[in-house]
Every structure is written in structure tokens, then in C-alpha cells.
Amino acid sequence: MELQLEESWKELLHGEFEKEYMIHLRNFLRKAKAEGKTLYPSGKNIFNAFQHTPFDKVKVVILGQDPYHGPNQAHGLSFSVQRGVQFPPSLQNIFKELMAEFNDFRYPDHGDLTQWADQGVLLLNATLTVEAHSAGSHQKQGWEIFTDKVIQLLSERRSGIVFLLWGRYAQAKGDLVDKNKHYVLTSAHPSPFSAHSGFFGNNHFRKTNEILKNAGKTPIDWQIK
Questions:
Q1: Which of 76, 132, 160, 171 could form a cystine bridge with 38, CB 3.0-4.6 A?
Q2: What span, in angstroms and rounded, lies between the C-alpha atoms of 118 and 222?
């Protein structure tokens, strides 16, 4: 695990890395590597979301559960895949919803959402690593404590952030957010198993931009170029 945190996040989170849960997590990851297991994303990309979206620049949070577990997919941004990789079904559905919300949105030729992150969209997974071909394999090893701390810091020290919580897992994290200070939009998850139960037609991307504009902030350009 390579500790590559943007300076504002490092200042806020450095104390977490000496806590017992993080020591356990580091040992867990070392053991997995020693056993020859393939882990995603690569070490340099584990904290990629923080590198691209400094603490004071966060406008929107899109919360995922854990990284994609296939080759060359995950790179530290929730729902995003590296260029040249086939779009997972959830990402396909996100793009379909964007096409429905914005007449001029063009279906992208890659699924790298870094452009969103650079505009202030924190693409945060609750669990930051996973074993290859084993969804959820690194849950309950400590990552959730770390990412809950991230959400709590944003809730306590910032205001006016739009949290997009898709599916029951993400919505449960909404309890960490002060709804008197922030905006929380919820719907079904974009997974093929639930997208037709409330994700399609949620208008979250358009609503997010309306909230940002009403607050005097620059809206997000959702078009992936």
C-alpha cells in the first residue's frame, strides 16, 4: 500500500495510519501479496480519488462499494475504469442515464472518469482494495473505518456538498452526513439488477448541477472526452 495522498487529505488523515485498524489492514494486504494473490487497484492507485479531488475542492461525492475485480479495470475511482477496458454494466447504465438527462451528452468511447474527479467529484469506494475475481473480498478489514472517517470529515468541516447515494449500501452511509449542511440524493443502484427500479430517471446529474448553480458554484461537465 503506497501512501500517496494529496496534501490537504494527508493533513486530515495522517493520524489514521497509526491506528490499530490500519495496522491490521496493512498486515492483511501484505499477507495477501505474500501468498501471491493479485490485488486491485495497483498500489499507486489505491488513493487515486484523493489525489484528484483535494478536500477543499470537493463539490460532489459518488459513493461506490468496492473496486472492480477484473484485470485492468480499477484505478482508484468509484465506477470508473481505465481506458481501453470494456465498460462494466453499472457504468453503461450511468452513461445511459446521462444521455437521457442531457440531450447533448454523447456516449463516451472510454470509461475513465478522471475528468469528473478533477472538477470536484470525489469518486469514493467504501473499500479501496479487492482480490482479483473476488468481489467484496476486502470488506470488513478496516477500509470502511477509514472511508467513514473521510465522509465524517467532509460532513463536519465542509458545507453544501452533494452526496449521490445509489443503492442500500451507499444509502446506509448517509447516516454519516449532516443533512442540514449538505444535499443527499438517493436512488436505486445503477447495477442491471436494480437500475430499472429507480436509478433510470433519477435525474441526479441534472439535479446536482442545479444545486451547484443555485449555490454560485460551477456545475460539473459530465461529458467524458
A1: 132
A2: 11
CB neighbourhood size of 34 (10 A): 8
Task: Name the strand (E) or helix (H) holding 210.
Answer: helix 204-214
d(CA 119, CA 36): 37
How far, CA to CA in Å, does 109 sit from each of 119, 160, 209? Answer: 20, 32, 23
- Which amino acid is it at 8? S
225 SS3 class = coil
* Strands 39-40 and 130-131, sheet pairing: antiparallel
**Length reported for the chain:** 225
For residue 205, with 0-12 CB atoms within 10 Å meaning exposed, 13-18 middle and 19 or more buried, which class applies?
buried
Reading phi first (left if > 0) and then psi (alpha if -120 to 50, else beta), residue 87 is in beta
Report the distance separating Cα 123 and Cα 47, nearest Å: 11
Pairwise CA distance, residues 152 & 148, whole Å:
6
Q: Which residues pair with 134 in a beta bridge?
A: 131
Residue 181, pLDDT score:
97
Active site residues: 66
Beta bridge partners of 221: none
Residue 40 parent element (H or E): strand 39-40
Q: 76-103, pLDDT tens digit by residue? A: 999 999 999 999 999 999 999 999 999 9
